[in-house]
Amino acid sequence: MRNFRLIKHVDIDPSTFHNPLCIIGMPGIADVGKFAVDQLIGIFQAKKIWDIIFNDYPAGAIVDDSMLSTPKAEILFYEDPKKKQDLILITADAQAMTPRGIYEISDYLATIIHRLNIFKIVALGAYPMKRTRGEDFSIFITSTEEKFVNYFISTGECKKVNKGVIIGANGLIPTLAKARFGIEGIVLLAETDNSAVSNENFTDLQASISLLEMVGKHFNLPIKSTFTTTKIGEITKDLESKRKELEQELESFQPNIPITDVDKSLYI
Hints:
The chain is an alpha/beta fold. It has seven helices and eleven strands. The chain has helices spanning 32-44, 99-115, 146-154, 169-181, 195-198, 205-218, 229-251; strands spanning 4-8, 21-24, 47-54, 62-64, 67-69, 73-78, 87-92, 120-129, 139-143, 158-160, 184-193. A nine-stranded mixed beta sheet has the order 1-3-6-7-2-8-11-9-10. It has a two-stranded antiparallel sheet with strand order 4-5. α1 crosses α6 (205-218). The longest helix is centred in the last third of the chain and has 23 residues, at 229-251. It is globular, with a radius of gyration of 18 Å. The model is unreliable at 228-232, 234-239 and 249-268 (pLDDT under 50).
């Protein structure tokens, strides 16, 4: 497809995979799903298979420590040394800019997942709700298969999503993968505060950690949690501090154009 550029980093043979599980976490509300997958990439030292450059990603270059890169989606691989369950991890620097673009990249990724002989997808995201300070985090389940909904509800650890729309690639990829290729899909959404919807600079690390713990427990992943409440608070404060410093530096260079609610995008 002319809209995509696939950059290969390593050669792989899907026929050698062992019961591969695909875990997806795209940017969205409070970056809950993306942060969780980024942590999995670090925990398992996953190797990058492909970068995907798409012409509907934001039209700008990413600068990190003075190095330039283009917005992209990433597909990474972890080979289980016990040969029980390999992992394919998918994330991105951004969501596509238009509804059509979100659909196109979701369909493209669903096709790649199918070609990798994957039969189950777990997508991670956020579920915005009004929260009371000190309340335990809830995780919500929705799926292409009733058996997964029933299983997670039976554990007492998840709540059912009765109605709604999951906007963005986190919900669309497993839906399209099911419709086109019969791949089973599960979406786990960690509760985050409603304020995250209007605050694009908010990162809910606690919600991401709750998803990591859930995924590790129910999909037999060797994840040892090293995140205490204190550590999460310190990381969050550090992120907020760096973000405020960057905003102050950019303020004198940016035209003062007000952003209306219409300009803001909502992705779960």
